[in-house]
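Service request form, structural biology core

Requester: graduate student, group of Dr. S.
Request type: structure prediction, single chain
Budget code: on file
Notes: please return the result as structure tokens.

Sequence provided:
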Amino acid sequence: MTHEPLRTLYWENGSLFLLDQRLLPGEISYLECRTVEKVAEAIRAMVVRGAPAIGISAAFGMVLGARQLAAEGVGAPDMRRRLAGIAACLRSTRPTAVNLHWALCRMELRLEETAGLSGEEIIAMLEEEAQLMLSGDISTNRRIGVHGEPLIPDGASILTHCNAGALATAGYGTALGVIRAAAAAGKRLHVFVDETRPLLQGARLTALELRHEKIPVTLVADSCAGYLMASGKIDLVITGADRIAANGDTANKIGTYTLAVLARQHGIPFYIAAPCSTIDLSLEDGRGVVIEERNPSELTTLMGRQIAPAGIDALNPAFDVTPSELISALITERGVLYRPGRAGLAELMGKGER
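Core staff response, request fulfilled:
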């Protein structure tokens, strides 16, 4: 039996409400964003995280920016010009996840259709587009689940990394959406969730979602993956993605590459579940991915407490890149692509508009 996932974000009475994921699992609290600056800061501070959720939040940030300009008495021509600057500001908040760029491009394309319209009409069109993204993301995730569910055998023991569930999207999830679909199909599952240092998205978020769904879950340390695989306790690995290059190289939460190497060593399928909006055909391969470097304090402190010597150097990349040859299949809303490469990704993207 499944339950409704936690609501990551929603739009109400001209405000964007974001579930503050920094407080989970201890507290469920929503941050109200009434300005684009508030949205930008929420994205930077990881109040909201996960590539699809970031993109949708930025889309509503554009709506809020347009509303602010209208309130300042800015006319329609100047509003369109200044919204370009607002989009650039939102793009700068998180550099790795391509869904942010994709969502803002969609909003800018819609903005190009507003010549001759009033400020209020521009706002209405932008809000309509953001709402379409919100509802469309949930539909996309459910289709990912439908395509991925046959890859999950009954009785499977699954390892997942970071959080690619409802909390990383508008709802339902990508990697967890596949797991959720398998559970809904009546399959017996057990999911091992690694903690995902330094911000513990696995321990705080994925474990919470699976418990909420009544799917059996066991939390393990990040360094436990090799032991689990060598012991025969893992049947497959499935994660989400933040950017997929034209050759199939995939950027995801730091530590994903390690799991892919371990899975290959032990002959275990390694799956990526992501919407086609995560595919960036303009990027030749993974070497072109900009890896976000986050504050070293995330590594030297834990829940506000210093856990490393004061003043020590720390390196805190948020993502790594898994080469395409280590990926058994890419699961998208348009189907499953085995051994993703240039030709297959180009054909996949040709099946429909992004």
